[in-house]
Amino acid sequence: MKRLLLLGTAGALLSACASIEPVEPAADVVSADYPVVAAIDSANAADLDWRAVFVDPQLQQLVDIALDESRPLRLALLDAETARAQLRVQRASFFPMIGAAGSYSRSRSAPLPGFQDAGVVTQAQATVGVSAFELDLFGRLRAQSESAFQTYLAAGESAQAARITLSASVADAYVATLTAQERLALVEATAQDWRASQTLTQRLFEAGQADGTEVAAAEAQVRTAEADLEAARREAAVALNALVLVVGRPLPFELATPSSDASPVLTQLPAGLPSNLLTRRPDIRQAERALLASRADIRAARRAFLPSISLTGQYGYASNDLDNLFDGPEVWTFAPQITLPIFQGGRLQAQLDLAILRQNKAVASYELAIQQAFSEVADGLAARETFDRQIAAQRSAVEASQRRSALVETRYRAGATSRLELLDAQRQLYAGQQALLAAKAAQMSASIALYRALGGGPVAERIAPA
């Protein structure tokens, strides 16, 4: 029996001390030719408060409402608080559980043959003691506490990521709503102009200066504008509904369309150096915390192979008379216990294998978070470099189309050109104006995406360590 006990102890120690090399993220997670931003940027977008990026007062008010009303954000915050409570529960295992107990009993037993009746026996006892206090000699409880702590921090980073995502989603929906309203105004103005052009063509036809094909072309053009108008109204309503949904409740005011030159979003964000991503983005920090928690779980699983030492003790008084309980004799017990796992059907090894697999998964998630972060920033930087030039070129094209349309209309009124050329000029202007609206909206959306990709700003204070 002694030999079996020694063999079991040695096997447990060897299993617990087996070398488990920590899995590190791959060195080539991100390509070496990642586009690096010039260091002349003095600030990083993550240093900017979201109000400095979302500059429209209406948008700022809607973001404030969403941060208070959002159900998904509320769930993320509750998850963080749950992780904090679990951390407190785990940390409590470092302290002994001290309790007090009292008992009082009266009993009478049947007398044995040949013996005198013992009468009523009274027994009173009061004790205070420690129940099964585990001594963390091998660090199992410390590893479990570290895992709970990292899980708590990961939940906090998840809540911060939810805040940034929510604020960016509100900004995206707001930009989409304003763009839809601007497009609706453009289509209404275009339809009005084309109706006036149709009226002119009808008058020229009645005067014998235009034929029936020109009248039919003018009518088809107006009907196209009317169809576009209904589509624009539908898009504006859908965009507004989406904004209400992401805000969390009906809007407290009517949206006022800003001037065409004003942007509700700061489009020139300082990017900073890409290496800052590793310390800026909450999703990367969350993945890192999850990885650290998985490593702590491995340490706890390894130490489960080692002996567990616990202490139980009591101290108090006992008496045959309740009135004189604390004048009675002292009673105490001290019972240290050591428990060594010898055979559990492979449960401990399976737990260790599971912890290692979870760590491998955490490493893969961490690498994926880094890859996604750098890819999103690269896309945002590419957009930042091109949108200004695209919008400037498109604005010049619209101005040229406006001049052409005005000249062609003047020539058409004078009978110097055909309705076909006027139709082409008007359609070119209409398409150019819509393309300009789309480019401006895409630039604002790209700026919002870049702000989020760079880690966002201090939307709210990050969750503090417990």
UniProtKB/TrEMBL annotation:
Record key words, sorted: Coiled coil, Lipoprotein, Membrane, Palmitate, Signal, Transmembrane, Transmembrane beta strand
UniProt signal peptide: 1-18
Localization, UniProt: Cell membrane
Alphabetical list of InterPro entries matching this protein: MdtP/NodT-like, OMP_efflux
Pfam families the UniProt entry points to: OEP
Predominant localisation class: membrane
Bilayer topology term: Lipid-anchor
Coiled coil: 215-242
One of the record's GO molecular function terms: efflux transmembrane transporter activity
GO annotations of cellular component type: plasma membrane
SUPFAM superfamilies: Outer membrane efflux proteins (OEP)
Similarity-based family: Belongs to the outer membrane factor (OMF) (TC 1.B.17) family.
Protein name: Efflux transporter outer membrane subunit
Source organism per UniProt: Candidatus Brevundimonas colombiensis
